[in-house]
Amino acid sequence: MLNRRNFLTAAVGVAVAGGLAACAKEDDSSSGSSDSGSGGGGGKKITLGFAQVGSESGWRTANTKSVKEAAKEAGYTLKFSDAQQKQENQISAIRSYIAQKVDVIAFSPVVVTGWDAVLKEAKTAKIPVILTDRSIKTSDDSLYVSFIGSDFIDEGRRAGKMLETVLQKAGHKGPVKIAQLEGTTGAAPALERAKGFKEIMDAEHKDDWKIVVSQTGDFTRAGGKQVMAAFLQSDPDINVLYAHNDDMALGAIQSIEAAGKKPGKDILIISVDGVKDGFVAMSEGKINGIVECNPLLGPQLMDLVKKAADGETVERRIKTKEGDFLQEEAKEALPTRKY
Ligand code: AHR
Questions:
Q1: Which residue ranges does the record annotate as region Disordered (predicted)?
Q2: Residue boundaries of the structural domains of the chain
Q3: Domain 152-293 class?
């Protein structure tokens, strides 16, 4: 039986950064005047530099809203930038925050590698860095103080287990030909959701399941639509779609329908996130199951920011807790979805 819980969390970490985003959009969501550089202690107002990935998906929109609202609620000055899914923009934004001497830097890394140089600059400037949502690969763990976000490998495993249930409910017999829509190349959720799913496949379904096509749709609806159309041309017998997020699944549904097939019936669909549009599609029978990934990280992040600014020790890793949803639960859950 699939469990269904509404999120929450638990863990921490930090590091460094700064810079001005040449192409990234930057704004100051300050709730008043700033005492940036004060270090946040002694009742002084905290300045947080937040370098966001982009605005590629419904999940990201909800995450940005959560961060902005929580910063306002906490009374921090927020310097926010949107890197438009480009690592160079995020690095520039981090450098800008270092130059502006913010108290804490938080960012959700577009990809896992290539951060050491800029994070060393932040460390030299004594600005703690918190990773949110996505992790990085580094040879020096002291470059960040905390990481708050989901366990993406577990999400991939849960997607695999969910597919077992969905195939059984559909009474599916015969080969399982899976198309995989991957997230942004090199991003933690793309690498790890693929890894967790493959673990289940290799351990339990080596002979009957096969990923016949797999390509990135960059976590966007347009990407999912375009890549799914190409998948269907290359192999019209695909009977399962595993999409690394709802937006790509929603784009893919358009291509499946355009090809004269029924999403959720001719092609069973599992995706990740649990945004409202995904739930709508699930309640219409077009998506068969969704593994939830919680974007509402703002309030917990602000608690960490305060501790880091005050020089307190923070938890190294905080994992969000999420649920899994099948079609029969979608209608009931829809009205209470928060994002
Ligand atoms: O890092 C989280 C992922 O990024 C979400 O699952 C996806 O929708 C977003 O683009």
A1: 25-45
A2: 4-150+295-321, 152-293
A3: alpha beta
